[in-house]
Write a structure and sequence with these properties.
Length: 502
């Protein structure tokens, strides 16, 4: 069955994704994604479907079956790719062919009864020529075991079921799927040894009702189409596919036969509901309360600004209302000129630790960044820049401001000075800097922290960096002793914006 990009795009644009995701998430189709698979990008809040594995996966599917139309075939493959985007973990690392096979089975077993008008059991059979064939090599035999539950040694059938049940709650952002990878690899190794001794025990496979077992799209893998005829040699040559991180149209309901919206089921009875897993993937960086809290600050500013009020600066006359501030800045200056807001905008520079030790907290900061991005879209008076602090400092692009937490922790005085000067060069704006390190930052020569010793900067550190800021005279220092630096970083960001937009 040959399918075109436009045919697949038409199906993608009619999928009721909002019904399954409980919110409007953009769904787009690309001819070939950069990462080689379909994925969800929380930064862009977009699910990207890869056309290539869909077209390749349908090459063996029949085109003259009245019960298996092109629209049905395409829809099943698109839902399979959507399942990868939601359920396949990004931290698996290098993925071999046998893992591709098993992951296809796991995601489709979990979603076997979740999507409407999709029969994954039938789909895997149809795209493999409509029948289960005798295995030609160990990879083909493993494919039949996992995808069609066809194997003379019945103990392997139970092991497949047990591994799927054990790892049913793994999803795209699972922190450490090592045990899943290990269990699948162990199954493959044991099956490989068994097959070499018992491959002659196979007989003509006869799946129940002419269909595969508890299966799904066999050819459609994480990295692309699986050629089970030649994959054994690929395994020997180490040519396994690699899995990458990254990282429906907006219909809100799906009509059943009676015209009523139907609720999706809970799949294979997963410990966490499918809805919960979708929510954890698509909403893991969504914090509506934080976004609305920020929005309230800007809304209040806009109301005041209509009357000529502007952003407060830290010089001029004393304001008795500010004597309770913990940073002892008691002075303010009206930032208005002839009834117009002199400092018409506020720019925030966030210098954030990007080292590996920060990986557990990176998600919290990225949630803040996502909320700030939402506010930035709504308010022309606010902009912000993220500077990753790892092996040196790097100014991020506007479309790539999230923290990855994969670098080291070092800084150089001259480099820091150059970057600080660049991000503080915005004219006609009040600018503030917040720097945070969760662990010791290595530096030699001149102390780079001293660049932040000014009235427009706050530095958040723990004991590893306290000696670097102990001589500060003007800059605000927040010393953390209980690993709550990320929480303080978020609060300091909110407080800074609140003060700026009084």
């Amino acid at each position: 069955m040959d399918v075109t990009f436009e045919e697949v795009k038409e199906v993608v644009e009619t999928l009721p994704l909002g019904f399954y995701c409980s919110r409007r998430v953009p769904l787009t189709l690309e001819k070939k994604t950069d990462v080689g698979t379909s994925y969800y990008s929380p930064q862009d809040d977009n699910i990207v479907i890869d056309f290539t594995p869909i077209a390749e996966g349908l090459t063996k599917a029949p085109s003259n079956d009245p019960d298996y139309t092109k629209e049905t075939a395409i829809r099943s493959m698109v839902y399979h790719e959507l399942a990868h985007a939601i359920l396949t973990p990004t931290k698996i690392g290098k993925v071999e062919t046998y893992f591709n096979i098993f992951e296809d089975e796991r995601i489709e077993t979990i979603l076997s009864s979740y999507f409407h008008d999709v029969d994954f059991k039938k789909q895997v059979l149809m795209i493999n020529g409509g029948k289960v064939t005798l295995p030609k090599n160990v990879t083909h035999a493993f494919f039949n075991l996992v995808r069609f539950r066809d194997c003379p040694e019945k103990s392997f059938l139970k092991r497949v079921e047990d591994i799927i049940e054990k790892h049913k709650d793994i999803y795209r952002f699972t922190d450490d799927p090592w045990y899943y990878d290990y269990d699948v690899q162990t199954l493959w190794n044991d099956f490989n040894k068994w097959y070499k001794k018992n491959n002659k025990s196979y007989k003509n496979p006869t799946p129940q009702n002419g269909q595969g077992g508890n299966g799904g799209q066999g050819n459609n893998s994480i990295g692309g189409n699986i050629d089970i005829q030649n994959s054994e040699q690929n395994e020997k040559n180490g040519q396994g596919e690699a899995n990458s991180e990254q990282n429906g149209n907006n219909e809100q309901g799906k009509q059943g036969q009676n015209g009523q919206g139907e609720k999706p089921s809970n799949g294979c009875g997963s410990g966490k509901s499918i809805k919960e897993i979708f929510d954890r993937t698509l909403n893991c960086y969504q914090d509506n309360k934080l976004t609305e809290r920020l929005n309230a600050i800007f809304s209040n500013f806009r109301k005041k600004n209509k009357g000529g009020c502007g952003i407060n600066a830290y010089s001029g006359v004393i304001n008795p209302r500010l004597v309770g501030r913990e940073d002892y800045r008691f002075f303010e200056r009206s930032a208005t000129a002839n009834g117009n807001n002199k400092f018409g905008s506020f720019h925030l520079n966030l210098f954030v630790d990007d080292s590996g030790s920060f990986s557990e907290d990176a998600g919290k900061v990225n949630t803040l960044i996502k909320s700030l991005e939402e506010i930035e879209k709504r308010n022309k008076n606010f902009t912000f820049t993220v500077i990753r602090c790892g092996d040196g400092m790097k100014i991020t692009e506007k479309n790539d401001r999230w923290i990855n937490a994969t670098a080291g922790t070092s800084a150089d005085y001259e480099e820091t000075k150059k970057i600080y000067k660049k991000v503080n060069a915005k004219k006609d704006a009040l600018i503030y800097n917040i720097l945070m390190y969760d662990g010791h930052c290595w530096w030699g020569g001149k102390n780079p922290f001293n660049i932040f010793d000014n009235a427009h900067s706050t530095v958040i550190v723990e004991r590893g960096n306290i000696n670097s800021v102990k001589e500060f005279k003007s800059g605000k220092v927040i010393y953390i002793q209980d690993r709550t630096y990320t929480e303080r970083f978020i609060e300091e960001t909110l407080n800074t914006i609140s003060v700026a937009f009084r």
